[in-house]
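Cross-check.
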Amino acid sequence: MICWVADPEELRQVAQICQDLSEGLKNRAVFNWTASQLMEEAQFSKILIKKNFSKEIVSFLAYRELPDNLEIMALGTRHGSLRQGYQGLLLAELKNIAFLDRKDIFLEVHERNDEARQLYQKWGFEVIGRRLQYYTDQGAAVVIAFKSEKILN
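Predicted model, tokenized:
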């Protein structure tokens, strides 16, 4: 089941996934969101969630609705639920929202986050630019976008 975060407990669960991911990774370029950052971001973003059959949140996608596009802020999956297609389901849902709203989707990905770049490429996103020294480690951001008109083709 995919839905939006509906209550404070669901938001707490998403924040905990962020915390677990950020603490469990050696390379902060792969995932750089802490629980507190996600809680702050929730004031400005919508958060799609994927629940398993036990109704536990296993994956989430936070995005902002801007006047002319949607910006992905964070995408993450609980450690024990990786490689099961949950992020793809969330991306597909966001692409549907973008199509209905006639908006493009964009995001920044750390230049060393090859896994994320491959995921987005698999789902039809394309590199449209770079932002040098964007991250605290001075790494560049690769700007990636999905044009909603591609759904029609």
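The chain has one domain: 2-152. The chain has four helices and seven strands. Passed to J.P. for a second look.
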